[in-house]
Write a structure and sequence with these properties.
The protein has helices at about 10-30, 45-55, 55-65, 75-80, 90-105, 105-110, 145-170, 175-190, 195-205, 240-245, 250-270, 300-315, 320-330, 340-355, 360-375, 380-400, 405-420, 425-460, 460-465, 465-505, 505-539; strands at about 110-115, 120, 125-130, 135-145, 215, 230, 235-240, 270, 280, 290, 295-300. By secondary structure, the chain is α+β, with helices and mostly antiparallel strands. The chain has four domains: about 10-85 and about 155-190, no CATH class; about 90-145 and about 195-235, 2-Layer Sandwich (Phosphorylase Kinase, domain 1), CATH 3.30.200; about 235-420, no CATH class; about 425-539, no CATH class. The strands form three sheets. Strands 1, 2, 3, 4 and 6 form a five-stranded antiparallel β-sheet that branches. β3 and β4 form a beta hairpin. α13 (about 320-330) packs across α14 (about 340-355) and α18 (about 425-460) runs antiparallel to α20 (about 465-505).
């Protein structure tokens, strides 16, 4: 696995040749003049051409910038979207040497046939069709050699450039370009890590196993390593090509794509960040095949819960709720103008409230929120930017493949299905049990933690004078924590039991619901009686 490091100000002597080369290319395309102000901005195509001349790292960096309208005007982001990372294919001797150096065995020992002409050649890797000795039909993804050193040098140079830009142009400091370079470095190394991609494929296959109209090729582990990834061959054609011949099949395909996106986000906390037609194929039997998991995102549970609230707020056009949910998802930021953010968010969602529901764009609303956030001092995490991009790409593909189909209707149906599943009796039972364990741990640990904290405070100059008072306070606080923990646990039993009874599932569900309900109320009553006796004893 490639090591991911924060770009540091490496030896200037080491990166100076590349730094000078970058500056010469930017000067030739008249990009450096932008530091002098908006009047000196280069034509959009000049920025794209400069990135293409600078190679793989800058092509990828330009693709990231194309997602961030908060940094560049729309004309530039639209131009940067045209950046392509296709390169001339590697010589077959290089492919063979990379494979054999990584796997430690001759190519001919693993494959009975191996096409020397690649199916695709991109900046990170190229893909070859092959047949294993067992007869299994596979696609072999081979990474270009030397990328680690090239990217490491370029990232170091970008770090210097970001510091230079922020120094020469104070108005750009609010965008925290140095932090953007760090996030870009991490993202790029994720794409280089084929072992991480293999793990992602396993996670997606598991998460989407119950989607009948989808097939994800499995990883062939015996032919995979750090620089080589071998998958089952996907014998289909691109979804946009297939859609022109079979337009009647596209609404079902859109429903499947929406389902896989939302199901993996809300159930597993992962998502495919690059759902464009080149990564979606249609198999001969009509199923969809999802490819290329090098660019995926991850969301923790609190972020997913905030995302649910944000999506509801976007559809309703509720600016205040959207602002609060968005701030919960963003990175911690100092000096956020909450008032300004609320105003800009309401303005961004104004079009949502005055549009027909079918015309609402989740991706564009997300994008507008990111722009409003950056303008008001919010630092957007790389995962949120990736998620916004994924929604935009999915909507764009939906409108291209099935212009008459309601993308939002597919979106709403899947959200309703996931919500019903989220509040099923099994999920309620699982969450109630988890909550009870957490509260038990809190009740057990809280008194000791409180006493230790107050004892340390009591050992100070001020504490020594009032140590008895503090010890008494510790006792009262510990007791109150115990009461609070008990009350919350009993309340959880009452709520969980009530929901099981209201579900009217019968059988053991009904019995479990009654037991939980009775236990909760009994616990509350006992807790109340104990409190009354304790209060009377103090008097």
């Amino acid at each position: 696995m490639a090591a991911v490091k924060e770009p540091k100000k490496s030896s200037l002597l080491r990166v100076s040749p590349r730094l000078m080369q970058i500056l010469r290319v930017l000067a030739r395309h008249k990009v450096l003049g932008a530091l002098r102000g908006e009047k000196h901005l280069p034509p959009p195509h000049a920025l794209r051409e400069a990135f293409e001349d600078l190679g793989v790292t800058f092509v990828k960096f330009g693709q990231v910038l194309a997602m961030q309208r908060d940094l560049l005007p729309p004309a530039y982001t639209d131009e940067l979207k045209l950046l392509h990372d296709e390169l001339p294919p590697m010589e077959f001797d290089v492919v063979r040497a990379t494979f054999e150096g990584c796997m430690g065995v001759p190519l001919s020992d693993m494959f009975s046939s191996f096409s020397e002409t690649p199916l695709a050649a991109a900046s990170i890797a190229q893909v070859h069709e092959a047949t294993m000795q067992s007869g299994r039909h596979v696609a072999v993804k081979v990474q270009r050699p030397g990328l680690d050193e090239t990217i490491s040098t370029d990232i170091a140079a970008l770090t210097y450039l970001a510091a230079l830009v922020e120094k020469l142009s104070p108005r750009l400091r609010a965008f925290d370009l140095s932090a953007a370079v760090i996030e870009f470095d991490k993202s790029l190394h994720r794409e280089l890590d084929f072992q991480r991609e293999a793990r992602s494929i396993v996670l997606f296959r598991t998460a989407l196993a119950d989607v009948p109209d989808l097939w994800i090729p499995d990883v062939v582990k015996k032919c995979s390593c750090a620089n080589v990834l071998t998958l089952e061959f996907s014998a289909g054609e691109r979804v946009d090509v297939y859609g022109k011949q079979h337009p009647e099949a596209m609404p079902k395909a859109i429903n499947t794509l929406v389902r896989l996106m939302l199901q993996t986000i809300f159930e597993e906390g992962i998502f495919h960040a690059d759902p464009h037609p080149g990564n979606v194929f249609v198999l001969p039997d009509g199923r969809l095949s999802l490819l290329d998991f090098g660019n995926t995102g991850e969301l923790d549970e609190p972020t997913r819960e905030s995302l649910v609230r944000l999506l509801h707020a976007i559809v309703k056009g509720d600016g205040r709720a959207a602002t609060e949910a968005y701030l919960e998802m963003a990175l911690e930021s100092e000096g956020v103008d909450r008032g300004g953010l609320l105003v800009d968010t309401k303005a961004a969602l104004y079009e949502v409230t005055r549009s027909d529901l079918e015309d609402v764009s989740i991706g564009n609303a997300f994008d507008s929120l990111l722009v409003a956030g950056t303008r008001n001092g919010v630092h957007n995490s790389a995962e949120i930017i990736l998620l916004s991009r994924a929604f935009v790409l999915l909507e764009s593909m939906s409108r291209e493949l099935a212009p008459e189909h309601s993308y939002l209707e597919s979106f709403r149906e899947e959200v309703s299905r996931l919500t019903a599943k989220h509040f099923s009796p099994a999920q309620i039972k699982e969450k109630t049990t988890k909550f009870a364990f957490e509260m038990e741990r809190l009740i057990i640990d809280a008194p000791g933690d409180t006493r230790r904290a107050l004892r340390r405070f009591a050992e100070g100059d001020l504490g020594r004078i009032q140590a008895p008072i503090l010890e008494n306070l510790a006792s009262r606080v510990s007791y109150n924590l115990e009461r609070l923990g008990s009350s919350v646990s009993f309340a959880a039993l009452v709520v969980g039991g009530s929901m099981l009874l209201f579900a009217q599932l019968g059988g053991w569900h009904h019995v479990l619901g009654e037991v939980m309900l009775i236990s909760g109320f009994a616990g509350m009553l006992i807790s109340r009686i104990n409190a009354w006796f304790r209060k009377r004893a103090r008097r």
